[in-house]
Amino acid sequence: MEASKSETRKTRAVVAGGGVAALEAVIALRSLAGYLADVTMLSPEREFVYQPLSIGDPFALGPAKRYPLAKVAEELQLELLHDGLESVDAGAHTVRTSSGEELGYDALLVAVGAGREPAFDDVLTFRGQEDGERAHGLIQDLEGGYVRRIAFVVPPGISWALPLYELALMTANRARDMSLTDVELTIVTPEESPLIVFGAHASEQMRELVAAAGISIETNAHAVVEHANEVRIVPGDRRIECDRIVALPRIVGRRIDGLPSDDDGFISIDEHTRVPGVDSVYAAGDGTTFPVKQGGIACQQADTAAAEIARAAGADVPSEPFRPVLRGQLLTGSAPRFMRHQLTGGQGEDSEVSDHTLWWPPSKIAGVHLAPFLGELPETEQVRDAPDEVPLDVPPTERAGTRIWI
After folding, report:
1. In this predicted model, what pLDDT tens digit does every residue of 324-333 receive, in sequence order?
2. What is the rounded distance in angstroms from the CA atom of residue 371 to the CA atom of residue 375?
3. Right CATH number for 118-250 from 3.40.50.1240, 3.40.50.720, 3.50.50.60, 1.10.10.410?
4. Structure pTM?
5. Half-sphere exposure of 134 (CA within 13 A, CB side)
């Protein structure tokens, strides 16, 4: 006799992470699998910070939006565990959290993101909202006449260059608005041409945009910073003297015990985002070996993984491989630019640039599920610490490896 739906055990899905890929995945899972899966979100963070908009912090355009993960859990009726992922026992289908708790799973999605380390000493490393105040101080120094020459540096190694172009273009726009005519801005990047990851057409458009803003650019340049006021470029041993240096961080993998990773700690995935050689484990986002580290790409990986997990749970969902389309909104200080490029294994030839949106909604993070979901979700009104002796009663959809306080 066939078991009734109520008697059938639901698939236990654990999504480790609290960033872009993790949120896209849990929303997609609810959409695709409904309640065929019991979903646990394992995240040490209590809020999701919309990091791409932190580029406005240095220019006093308002802080990045923040969303409480507890509200996400409530809306999606999933379990939220405030804890980190320590290790995976693939044979036993269990994970161990940072606090020592053991969780079983039928399917595991690792979306813990990547680390961001300073590439140079004695420079302003811009990682996002945590560096917004220092970057704002730099812009104030520019406005006050204390700084005139700024070098914006993409470091060697793995990084995502678009925010650096935004910082440089928005700085040039601010200088122009204030009639600062003697400002010298230079971009130093190992790319063969500006933002070539978006394709040749977009790269040429970017080169023209940078030139029109009065910004110099050094491409194919390996930057060496030995002093706070000088960038040495190799090959050629040329030197750029400057008052300040702004650099992007180097992106590094978060090695997880029990999962295979490359020498830099990034987790390998196949075209269906499965971790090779490990049963029922998937990975998505910046922590994977896929070379492009960008929110929209992380969402597409998360969608692929969610579909595979939903299929395993019994949902009638097709199995589609990860076919990345890169979508980027470039903030310039005036009208934004929208860029789209089909990633086809090489640079490809199909790229598009427009002053008008190329996708909907026209969000910085082009997630099919995430963008509309955040549009309906209330932002965090206030974040505050509270005395340890006042515990919060945790609702049924949420529990904590470390106790939640209000």
Report:
1. 999 999 999 9
2. 6
3. 3.50.50.60
4. 0.90
5. 14
